[in-house]
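Recap quiz, item 2
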Amino acid sequence: MEILIFAETDGEGNLKKDAYEIASYASEISLENGGSVNALCFNATNAESLSDYGVNKIINCKNEELKNFDPSNYSKCISEVFNNKECNLLVLSSSSNSKYIGGILSVLTDASYVTNVISKLTNGEKMTVVRNTFTNKAFETVEIIKNKIILAISKNSYGLKEKPVKSEISEINFNISESKNKVKSIDRATNKVTIADADIVVSGGRGLKGPENWHLVENLAEVLGGATACSKPVSDLGWRPHSEHVGQTGKPVSSNLYIAIGISGAIQHLAGVNSSKVKVVINTDPEAPFFKAADYGIVGDAFEVVPKLIDKLKEFKAVND
Amino acid sequence: MKILVCISHVPDTTSKINFCENNSKFDKSGVQFVINPNDEFGLTRAIWFKEKNNATIDVINVGLQDTESTLRKALAIGADKAVRINHEPKDGFSVAKFISDYISENNYDLIIAGRESIDYNGGMVPGMISALTKINFIDKCIALNISGNSVEAAREIEGGKENISTQLPLIIGGQKGLVEESDLRIPNMRGIMMARKKELVVVETSDDPSATHSKSFEKPQPKGEVTLVSSNDIEKLIDLLHNEAKAL
Ligand SMILES: Cc1cc2nc3c(=O)[nH]c(=O)nc-3n(C[C@H](O)[C@H](O)[C@H](O)COP(=O)(O)OP(=O)(O)OC[C@H]3O[C@@H](n4cnc5c(N)ncnc54)[C@H](O)[C@@H]3O)c2cc1C
């Protein structure tokens, strides 16, 4: 089975962690099904590092015009490589950009497309794969109908598996066309870990009483090197930006550690954060539903507990980092 | 301006998720259905264009007759006409294909879909429609302003937003931000009465263009008990997170 992965870079040309995770996934599939793993990246500065995760052929497109993500040209280039190399499987991450073009690519390559994938492909009478559905309230086994397949892998579901191989590195260029979407400006909070990329997410709810108390969430996130998030009412009240709203109707969180402070744990909130590996809750109300979903909990007042936690973590970090 | 809003008919967010027919199908018994929240933000933005720019709004759903209550709700809050493609949707591609066929026969300037439906979470329909109809696409759209054919939009990206200018025709994958929570409309009596008189067209189909087949469902194992730590013993929590959970 010939496999292609789309290995994404950040704004500076560094490959993202997601890229290594999908490389690990693809390399495992190729081990079982034969064929090689190809990776396509755009303007990557460290493309060769993919060889640590089992990528056999690394194709780096160096073109300044493709420095920023451009959905129409990126999908054209990826489908061109996929078709030219006669690939059967395209592996994507679940980043915003990959999901943006996943549907487009499935039409351009005439492939069966499955998102939120959490298992390997299983060969049976038909190929099947398992995905998260109903906002983490269920798993769905999906049968592939077409000959070609695109899988978007759920973040943190497979992990990084090092497998150094000797890789062939080549460069490629494409005929690109003028993009219909003109990006005029980008507003980005600098130096902040994003919820999508963070291993640790610290989240605050209405229990924190008002935006003036958010230093508790921010300081804790800073000590942990994590991202900040919030419950829906907190963003609806304008205490925090919408981009921090997590849950069923906000962003999904699948971090390693999720810390919920003053969040009751409503079903819609839990649905979106449940796939985080370890969940901690700090809440004054022992009856708060979050205690049923959490791994660790402290029944207590956030205004007393969180400053203590920050101090103790600083001591811990001083010894352990 | 002619707008088409794609409406997914989904279980209310508080629904218990169960499966039937040997775990091969979602169990609809006792479940309340609503307009998919991401679609509702888009529909509300469309109503704003109707009130300010004289746009007309069609809403479309691929589904069986039970989805008509959801389409009627969309009519009651301001859509002009509803279309139901009479087909039990099997996967994202079949939904995208049927909607694209309808778009090709009925030109629209703007097509609004939700970034993702809250039931199957496929997140693929708008992108597929864009590729099938060759209409330009903005995903995770959080702001949309239109004057003549010129579009000023914003897209959510990781850690911020991207401000984009483009032209109609356009398809977007919408979400909160297109309008605020407080802008959402609740159908009033007059709207409900008017909705009964509005046109609801049913389009028949024959083929099934599915690209995947949903075989079975399973629910996650119930979670173990929470480990409670006293608020006077924060070191214990750090120790557990470090040594037991390996999360620090
Ligand atoms: C269609 C729909 C979609 C929704 N989608 C989402 C979603 O995506 N994400 C989301 O989050 N919500 C969502 N909701 C809202 C959800 O139902 C809840 O209303 C919301 O999650 C509650 O937010 P909260 O926990 O911050 O506030 P509350 O429910 O008010 O909880 C505050 C908590 O703080 C605790 N507390 C108070 N004081 C302190 C203190 N000093 N120290 C510690 N704890 C304290 C309280 O005991 C309480 O448990 C949705 C609702 C609907 C209807």
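Chain B has one domain: 2-219.
Chain B has a mean pLDDT of 96.
End of item.
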